[in-house]
Automatic annotation (TrEMBL):
Residues 169-351 form the Fe-containing alcohol dehydrogenase-like C-terminal domain. Pfam families: ADH_Fe_C, Fe-ADH. It comes from Nonomuraea soli. The keyword Nucleus does not apply. This is Alcohol dehydrogenase class IV. The keyword Membrane does not apply. InterPro entries: ADH_Fe/GldA, ADH_Fe_C, Alcohol_dehydrogenase_Fe, MAR. Belongs to the iron-containing alcohol dehydrogenase family. One of its GO terms (molecular function) is metal ion binding. Keywords: NAD, Oxidoreductase. Residues 15-157 form the Alcohol dehydrogenase iron-type/glycerol dehydrogenase GldA domain.
Length: 363
């Protein structure tokens, strides 16, 4: 049996250099900045990561021209504009932090063209995608631009040791969502599917292990590798139903990004699975369970994550206000047609924290 009969696809391989390994933020970062000829660097780090960032930059402190710490979730346009002002005179941007920090660096690169060196401290994966996002008046706009793709990424699992278990779990499931959705997103290819499958395997191994022992470096390494693969698969395959839902909800109600993904993913997987048997088979093998939607829902419960969007403060009547906005952006080749009624049922289940197959959730 051939795996992919009549295979035909287009795959865009993205440039970018990755240095991966324990201790690399201390041993490799300066050389990476040298390679970018970065002499007047704008350092971007969120308030909680600023001390770590200053410590990592101490060996080349004379090259830090400015530091910007006003990092906000979903990159509000006002914060982006202040970061752009802080970049005046800089010749490179160094971001040290999670997806919001990388996103702020991308906002700067979008208008200035400055090269980015990224040191991720969560599993968001933004550092290997050319996707930027900005939020204005409760509406999140995203776009793709090669200028925002970091030129170099330094992945150091040691930096993720401080990520608390709930954040690790939510962020790891955000990465899982990149992988799962890569199987039906509009620009999927055998290349993105292969990367996504390996990402699922690494994340499925790392998530429970980190929850049991957050200092388990082998598990932290699995998760960070999984996050890299997840971002790579997402960058190639693009956004499908899951990302469109999370994007509209996140922008409209300022929901926490990773938790929103963790809650919605099992529901989108359960919705699409009957119409995407090949994707389901490959996701199941990589995940190591025959029913990955139920598995991911149970995993979220075991990791102590909120299971319903209502636990994030969303009201039930908020759901109707986003239906049309989501329907307008769902890719037309989603495996299962998305009707208003189908989407309402899916969103309601995700809001209530129901089991993805409709049964009651017991925690
Ligand atoms: P985040 O960057 O907002 O970080 C979440 C929290 O984790 C923050 O409080 C931060 O201070 C803390 N934190 C980060 N690293 C830590 C560490 N090592 N130890 C302890 N605390 C740490 O959240 P996120 O989930 O990483 O990123 C979400 C953002 O990234 C969203 O805006 C999302 O849209 C964006 N994103 C973009 C892409 C893309 O391709 N453009 C992909 C994924 C996510």
């Amino acid at each position: 049996m051939t795996l992919l009969p009549n295979t035909a696809f287009t795959h865009t391989a993205l440039p970018g250099r990755v240095v991966f390994g324990r201790g690399t933020a201390r041993t490799a970062l300066a050389a990476e900045l040298d390679a970018l000829q970065a002499r007047r660097i704008l350092l971007i780090a969120g308030p909680a990561e600023a001390a770590l960032a200053r410590e990592l930059c101490a060996p080349f402190a004379d090259r830090i021209a400015a530091t910007f710490t006003e990092v906000r979730p979903h990159v509000p346009l006002e914060a982006a504009e202040r970061a752009r002002q802080a970049a005046a005179g800089a010749d490179a941007v160094l971001s040290i932090g999670g997806g919001s920090t990388t996103g702020t660096a991308k906002a700067v690169a979008l208008t200035t063209g400055l090269p980015i060196a990224a040191v991720p401290t969560t599993y968001a994966g933004s550092e290997v995608t050319p996707v930027w996002g900005l939020t204005q008046d409760g509406r999140k706009t995203t776009g793709t631009d090669p200028r925002v793709l970091p030129r170099t990424v330094v992945y150091d699992p040691d930096l993720t040791l401080t990520l608390p278990v709930p954040l690790s779990a939510a962020s790891g499931l955000n990465a899982m969502a990149h992988c799962v959705e890569a199987f039906w997103a509009p620009h999927r290819s055998p290349v993105s599917s292969a990367v996504a499958a390996e990402g699922i395997r690494a994340l499925a191994a790392g998530l429970p292990a980190v929850a049991t022992d957050p200092t388990d470096l082998a598990a932290r390494t699995d998760l960070l590798l999984g996050a890299y693969l997840a971002g790579t698969a997402f960058a190639a395959a693009g956004s499908g139903l899951h990302h469109k839902i999370c994007h509209v909800l996140g922008g409209a109600f300022d929901l926490p990004h990773a938790e929103t993904h963790a809650i919605v993913l099992p529901h989108v997987l359960a919705f699409n699975a009957p119409a995407a048997p090949d994707a389901l088979a490959r996701i199941s093998i990589a995940y190591g369970r025959p029913d990955p939607a139920a598995g991911l829902h149970d995993l979220g419960l075991r990791l102590g994550l909120p299971t319903g969007l209502r636990e994030l403060g969303l009201r039930e009547d908020d759901l109707d206000t986003v239906l049309d906005g989501i329907l307008a952006v769902v890719p037309s080749d989603n495996p299962r047609p998305v009707t208003a009624a189908g989407l309402r049922t899916l969103l309601h289940a995700a809001w209530a924290g129901a089991h993805p197959h409709g049964e009651e959730t017991t925690s």
